[in-house]
């Protein structure tokens, strides 16, 4: 039986939208994710999927409740510790590639490793990942010289460079056409399964959702199993 | 290379955003102008002050001994005693007084120095300013005059001039008869100090004493030259012990106190005004980095999601400011030093020359410490302080807002 890696306990998130008015996006969410699981989260636009993902990934603070990672509440930590956890334990792939335009494909992939530790081995790791995502011939290309699918594959490689325990994917194929979308998704699944990485995958694509180990629907701020 | 420096380098060199580069260039130019102007102006002011000091020390004594009651009689007896004091390089009797000079139809005022040509050279460096003739070669019937005075009187070597003493005789009919002496111009001196060159005349002590009806062994002052011009006060105490109470002393610092204080104050105020340029350039750096942060909001969000701490973000943008300030300071400093060298090498003439200013050539004296070090350190400190403000703001940006609103 795989160990529990991340857990949400009675998570709430609300935003102030005016004087004394609150918009409650997440309502009392409880979730357990085990090591190596690929978890899908579906829901309509604006249902709070991205917010949930950001809170799980320590990018956003919950209004109430806890995010337990490796038996510790993530939000007890200060920025320094939280950033270190984010760097070495988590990986992110967003809907938009969010690569840094001033860096080449290899430099973009290597960047999280440089943040963790400055070592010549970082570039070796980067090259290996570039081969895995099939873009080794684009090693010195800048983001503006790559196609949408290629950019997202670089973003996936970047998310995996520090061998994270969890990858948070926020509709990573949402900006791609159907053909590219499927290719990138299949490649992503192959790689994360090969690396044994836990994945929290936000999508509204039903076909993709069916390929997850377990899928939840976020509906009116509540998480329901499918 | 640490990631902060790696990213700061990449962002700084980015050629994609021409607008930002333009703003960065404006900031860099601001710093260049400030640092350059400070170095050049302060060096010229140093040069001016040093040149003035050198000329004052070179043509006048380091220590002046005078009497409270007119002249010093039997000065010869004091000279060996003063000379025996350690640190004293030379002692010479020098009389001086205001006189009138007449040459042809030209009449003007001046200051006549009566010197002992054998020892005068020991107390001043006047010989190096001689255009023609020399102190030692001066004959009994000769006078050395300043170059400007020579022009004013249209008198050059060999011409006669009449020196009129304010020492007058009252004739039986009640009219006043001033004592005069006719001397030949035996040398022309040019110190570069307009006031000196316009009014100074040098003749023998004997001629001076004749003109003022003074005793043969009397003088109005004794000039003392010392080894260390900044230790005159200590020597004055030692000299005073060897002199009677009616003789008193002043050194070159006392005699020119107001002048050097004014120069020092002027330099300070000028430095302060020019430093404002660097301050303005520093404010430009704030604007530049604020714009950079605004433009790199998305990247800040990405970096935070990749695990960069608030401190890390702050450092990246602080480095941007340091690059701008460092580049501006380095270019400004190099240009400033090169300009100082050029001023020194090419002997730039001051428009109007000696008739308007004390000096005819733009002087310059580059001082590594404190001026240069303070300017460079000041510019860099301002840069760092002004960069910290927007860098701090960048560090505090919410990563989610930064990504979501792009």
Labels describing this entry:
heterodimer; A: 226 residues; alpha/beta; Rossmann fold; six-stranded mixed β-sheet; four-stranded antiparallel β-sheet; 7 helices; 10 strands; 35% helix; 29% strand; globular; B: 406 residues; alpha+beta; 2 domains; six-stranded mixed beta barrel; two-stranded antiparallel ribbon
Structure in a nutshell:
Chain A has 226 residues and is of the alpha/beta class. Chain A is built from seven helices and ten strands.
Layout of SSEs?
The complex is a heterodimer of chains A (226) and B (406).
Chain A: E1 4-18, E2 21-34, E3 38-42, H1 49-56, E4 64-69, E5 72-73, H2 79-89, E6 90-93, H3 105-116, H4 121-132, H5 148-160, E7 166-170, H6 178-195, E8 198-202, H7 206-210, E9 214-219, E10 222-225
Parallel strand pairs in A: 3-8, 3-9, 6-7, 7-8
Antiparallel strand pairs in A: 1-2, 1-4, 4-5, 9-10
Helix pairs in contact in A: 3-4, 3-5, 4-5, 5-6
Chain B: H1 3-13, H2 18-59, E1 63-67, E2 72-73, H3 78-83, E3 88-103, E4 106-115, H4 120-123, E5 130-132, E6 142-146, H5 147-153, E7 160-170, E8 176-189, H6 194-199, E9 200-204, H7 205-211, E10 218-219, E11 221-226, H8 232-241, E12 247-251, H9 252-255, H10 257-295, H11 297-305, H12 310-346, H13 353-356, H14 368-395, H15 399-404
Parallel strand pairs in B: 4-9, 6-8
Antiparallel strand pairs in B: 1-11, 1-12, 2-10, 3-4, 3-7, 3-11, 5-8, 6-9, 7-8
Helix pairs in contact in B: 1-12, 2-10, 2-12, 2-14, 10-12, 10-14, 12-14
